[in-house]
Amino acid sequence: MAHIGSGVEYGLHCLLWLVGPTPEPASSRDLADLQGVSASFVAKIFSKLEKAGIVTASEGLRGGYRLARPADQITVLDVVDAIEGEKPLFDCQEIRGRCAVFGAKPPAWSIDGVCGIHAVMLRAERIMREELGRTTVADLARTVSRKAPADFPAAIQGWLADRLASRKESRGPKARDSPIPRRRRT
Predict the structure, then answer these.
(1) C-alpha pair distances (Å), 156 with each of 28, 130, 161, 170
(2) What is the rounded CA–CA span in Å between residue 19 and residue 29?
(3) I need a labelling partner for 141 at 20 to 30 A (CA). Which of 8, 24, 39, 157 fits?
């Protein structure tokens, strides 16, 4: 079982298409279709990203999601914590004091201080969080742009624009549906 789930991967990939000098808002449905994943899955991810202040949403035919702040001010750690929550990498069960040889009461030396295994996991988590906190969405976008052909960002923006145009044509002038799924009231 992965500590960081696929929601983080899809969320980061979707955020990449919101980076740029003047990107148009993108609906969660379009971002889902672009990534080949269910719209409800992306809607749940973006609800968490919006709550964390990473994206903002606008309703209406031309609505969708935008980055709430510049991409160089959004770290991968921000995205991980928004989607996964701030959960520890390792949950120490303190089994070191349960050795059968100890009987009902473990000796003090066996449970004194932080468990050695837990200490390693704490260091690993600290290093992982530092790296994720150093890397921004803008850094990831630059990596993708170096790998992709020069016309790839324009192809993505064209694809998104075509989707918006097809929604306009199919809904007519009195369209009231939002490209952002409405939140259920509980």
Answers:
(1) 15, 32, 9, 21
(2) 18
(3) 39
pTM, two decimal places: 0.81
If one counts the domains in the chain, the total is: 1
Residues 143-180: tens digit of each pLDDT: 998 999 989 888 888 898 888 888 777 765 544 445 55
- Cα 10 to Cα 95, 113, 124, 157, distances in angstroms: 36, 40, 24, 18
**Domain range for 44:** 6-171
CATH of the domain at 77: 1.10.10.10
User: Of 25-29, 115-119, 159-163, 181-185, which gets the smallest average pLDDT?
Assistant: 181-185
Two structure tokens written together for 88: 């520890």
Residue 116 tokens read as 């050695």
d(CA 8, CA 76): 9
